[in-house]
Fold:
Amino acid sequence: MEPVVVSIMMPAYNAEKYVGQAIESVLGQSYPYWELVIVNDGSTDSTPEILTRYTDPRIKVFHQANGGEASARNTALEHMQGELVAFLDADDLYLPNHLEVTTSYLQAHPHLGGVYTDGYHCDQNGAKLQSLSSRRRGPFEGFIFEQVVRASDVFGPPLCLLLRRDIINKHALEFDTDIVIGPDWDFLTRYSEIAQFGYIDQPTCLYRVHLSNITFRVDSPIRSQSLAKCRTKAIKLDHFNNCSLDARTFVFYDLLVNLLTEYPDNQFEITQWPEFMDLPAKERGRLFRLMASKGLQTSGEHTYIQGWLQRSRQLNSDDWRAASLATLYSLNPLFCKMLLQLKASIQPKAPTISPLDNLK
Structure:
């Protein structure tokens, strides 16, 4: 088969500590037909000087004012020439066979729009930690839109992926610059709506975990707002209502109960959407009850809580929890809030810094 060129996108922002290692991992690939498109996203450290040391003509460097990860990825897309698109952040590493394994697979499976592999998390010194697959659901193959919509852990970091650029161009896909955390998840959700995937059960890359990862640096409100936008965009995609009831309910639960608790006006608006109204009455009732419960724990005073409790009882009259909560709230809102906070305080808590902070 004719060799195909793989275009590798590498956003780089203040990446002086690791960018050289990332580039060397590309230079060390067993597959030679690649171009590395590096976008220096307004770095203020020595990243620009380090990039000048690499003179291989396959390496192309572009400089722009700092615009964030999504902006840098879009700039890379604009300058790519290859048939296939690969991802490598400036602090990660390819194992020597990554491009050869993934490119050969897509050449042998022309009906597929993408392929992903396994790999390892590694520490700041490059020592291997857990496998990527240990933090994923799946693996899934074929039309995996529902699995990608449900959560971002199908692929994990995008460096394990190889996609077809003609699909990206045909559908004018780009990264959403309003999303700080998760622009790759949003992009891949939309890509998975129009393409099928294969999986290679082989480690081909290293994802570095360190305190400079954006998942560690960005504060919780910005993270919640970004992930909420990923969720709201996914709900509005054409194939969302074709997903299973379990997946659709989970998406609304994460959005309304986990991500938008501090934004009751947004919660109220979303409960008017036709996609929410398409859920069975009992599921909507349960979600209203959970929204009210979480809202009581956080603010306890916003005007929607009583209405949500009423809607919960109307939609799901068999839910004794909703009936108990509504009764207690009507008798003593402050005591109801304190009781819910006490219950929450003795329950196990999810990680609040990063989903990667417990890697060993």
